[in-house]
C-alpha cells in the first residue's frame, strides 16, 4: 500500500479543497478497451484508460469503521489491488449521508452509501444521476433494540423510541406491519451521539433502532440487557454496504469503474476470509486520523465478523459477494416507496440505477483477475 493513498483529513477539508477549484476533469476515453482476462497481464490500452480517469477519491461512510462498503476498499488498497489495475485511489473519511453531493458534484468519484434505497432517495430528491456499482449486503441490517421488559413489538405501543435523526425506513416498515405507526401508536425523540449504552439508559424511551453489526454487540460487551427485533427477520427487504459513483463518471471512464468494482469485490472476499485482519487495517487508519469516533478493535472486529456473516448468509449460491441482486433491490424500492421515503417521486427501476458490469467482473462464481 502506498502511504500517500490514504488521505488523513476530514470530510470538511475535502469540500474546502475541492469547492474552490473543482476536481480537474481527467481526460476521458470512450473507445472500447480490451477486457481483463483471468491469468493474463492487464492490457496496456486498459491500463492507460484507467490512468486517464485521473486521481480517484473514495469517501467512506463512517470514518474508517470496519463496515461493508468501507472495509473492502481499505482491504483492496492495503493489498495493492487498485495499483494492480492501474487505478490511483485515495481514501477520505466521511459520513454516508454527506457523500452523495460530493459524488454528484464530481468532488469524489466513488463513495460508501448506507443502502440502495438511500442512494436512490438522494438522487431523486436532488436530481442527481447516481449509479450503484456494488452492494455487499442483500438483506437489511437495521434492527430494533427494546428494553428487557418488552416481550414483543406490541410493547412499542404507547411508548417512545429514541432515534438518531429519524426512524430507519426498514424499522418503520417492520413496525407498520405490526400495526404500529409513528405519531399514532408510538412517538420518537432524538438522541445525541453514538453511544447505545447512554441511549438505552434514557428513562423516557423503550428502546432504540440500530445496526445488527454494532449496537447489539456493543450493548452485550457492556452488560446492558435488551430484546432484539431484526428487520430482516420480519421479512422486510433491504440492503447495506453500497458503493456508488456518478453516471457522468461511469460513462466517461467505464473501464475504471469496472476495475474499481473488481478490486473492491476482491477486497470484500479478503474481508470475508479474515474479518479480524481487515478490521485491524481499518482501525489503524482510524487511529492515524485521530480516531474521532473512538473506534476500538473490539467493536470493529465484531462489526466486520457480523457483517461478513450477514453478507454470506444472504448470498445465493454461485454469486460473488458484492453483486447487486436486481430482483431483491427492486423489492426494496417497492417496499420503501410505500413508506414515503421517495416523497412524491416515483423511484426508477433498480436496473436503471445499477451499472451492468458484473458479467465482465465475474465468471462462474469467481472474480476475473489478471495475472
Automatic annotation (TrEMBL):
Keyword Signal on entry: yes
GO biological process, one term: thiamine biosynthetic process
Residue ranges occupied by any SsuA/THI5-like domain in the UniProt entry: 70-278
GO molecular function terms attached to this record: metal ion binding; transferase activity
Catalytic activity: N(6)-(pyridoxal phosphate)-L-lysyl-[4-amino-5-hydroxymethyl-2-methylpyrimidine phosphate synthase] + L-histidyl-[4-amino-5-hydroxymethyl-2-methylpyrimidine phosphate synthase] + 2 Fe(3+) + 4 H2O = L-lysyl-[4-amino-5-hydroxymethyl-2-methylpyrimidine phosphate synthase] + (2S)-2-amino-5-hydroxy-4-oxopentanoyl-[4-amino-5-hydroxymethyl-2-methylpyrimidine phosphate synthase] + 4-amino-2-methyl-5-(phosphooxymethyl)pyrimidine + 3-oxopropanoate + 2 Fe(2+) + 2 H(+)
UniProt keyword terms in alphabetical order: Iron, Metal-binding, Pyridoxal phosphate, Signal, Thiamine biosynthesis, Transferase
Pfam families: NMT1
Pathway note: Cofactor biosynthesis; thiamine diphosphate biosynthesis
Record InterPro entries: NMT1/THI5, SsuA/THI5
Signal peptide: 1-24
Role, per record: Responsible for the formation of the pyrimidine heterocycle in the thiamine biosynthesis pathway. Catalyzes the formation of hydroxymethylpyrimidine phosphate (HMP-P) from histidine and pyridoxal phosphate (PLP). The protein uses PLP and the active site histidine to form HMP-P, generating an inactive enzyme. The enzyme can only undergo a single turnover, which suggests it is a suicide enzyme.
Family: Belongs to the NMT1/THI5 family.
Name under which the protein is recorded: Thiamine pyrimidine synthase
Amino acid at each position: 500500500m502506498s502511504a500517500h493513498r490514504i488521505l488523513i483529513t476530514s470530510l470538511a477539508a475535502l469540500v474546502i479543497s475541492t469547492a474552490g477549484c473543482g476536481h480537474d476533469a481527467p481526460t476521458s476515453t470512450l473507445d472500447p478497451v480490451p477486457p481483463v482476462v483471468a491469468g493474463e497481464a492487464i492490457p496496456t490500452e486498459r491500463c492507460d484508460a484507467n490512468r486517464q480517469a485521473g486521481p480517484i477519491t473514495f469517501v467512506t461512510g463512517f470514518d474508517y469503521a470496519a463496515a461493508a462498503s468501507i472495509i473492502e476498499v481499505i482491504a483492496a488498497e492495503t493489498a495493492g489491488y487498485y495499483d494492480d489495475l492501474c487505478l490511483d485511489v485515495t481514501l477520505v473519511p466521511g459520513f454516508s449521508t454527506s457523500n452523495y453531493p460530493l459524488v454528484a458534484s464530481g468532488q469524489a468519484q466513488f463513495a460508501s452509501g448506507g443502502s440502495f434505497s438511500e442512494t436512490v432517495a438522494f438522487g431523486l430528491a436532488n436530481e442527481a444521476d447516481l449509479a450503484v456499482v456494488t452492494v455487499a449486503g442483500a438483506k437489511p441490517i437495521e434492527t430494533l433494540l427494546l428494553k428487557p421488559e418488552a416481550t414483543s413489538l406490541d410493547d412499542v405501543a404507547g411508548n417512545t423510541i429514541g432515534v438518531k435523526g429519524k426512524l430507519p425506513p426498514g424499522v418503520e416498515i417492520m413496525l407498520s406491519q405490526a400495526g404500529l405507526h409513528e405519531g399514532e401508536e408510538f412517538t420518537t425523540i432524538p438522541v445525541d451521539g453514538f453511544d447505545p449504552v447512554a441511549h438505552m439508559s434514557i428513562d423516557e424511551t423503550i428502546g432504540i433502532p440500530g445496526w445488527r453489526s454494532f449496537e447489539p454487540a456493543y450493548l452485550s460487551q457492556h452488560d446492558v440487557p435488551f430484546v432484539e427485533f431484526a428487520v430482516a427477520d420480519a421479512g422486510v427487504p433491504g440492503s447495506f454496504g453500497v458503493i456508488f459513483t456518478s453516471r457522468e463518471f461511469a460513462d466517461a471512464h467505464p473501464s475504471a469503474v469496472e476495475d474499481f468494482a473488481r478490486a473492491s469485490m476482491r477486497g470484500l472476499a479478503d474481508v470475508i476470509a479474515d474479518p479480524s485482519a481487515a478490521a485491524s487495517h481499518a482501525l489503524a487508519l482510524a487511529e492515524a486520523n485521530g480516531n474521532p469516533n473512538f473506534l476500538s478493535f473490539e467493536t470493529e472486529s465484531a462489526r466486520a465478523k457480523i457483517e461478513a456473516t450477514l453478507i454470506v448468509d444472504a448470498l445465493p449460491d454461485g454469486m460473488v459477494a458484492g453483486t447487486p441482486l436486481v430482483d431483491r433491490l427492486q423489492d426494496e424500492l417497492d417496499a420503501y416507496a410505500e413508506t414515503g421515503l421517495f416523497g412524491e417521486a416515483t423511484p426508477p427501476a433498480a436496473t436503471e440505477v445499477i451499472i451492468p458490469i458484473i458479467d465482465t467482473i465475474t465468471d462462474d462464481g469467481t472474480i476475473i483477475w489478471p495475472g
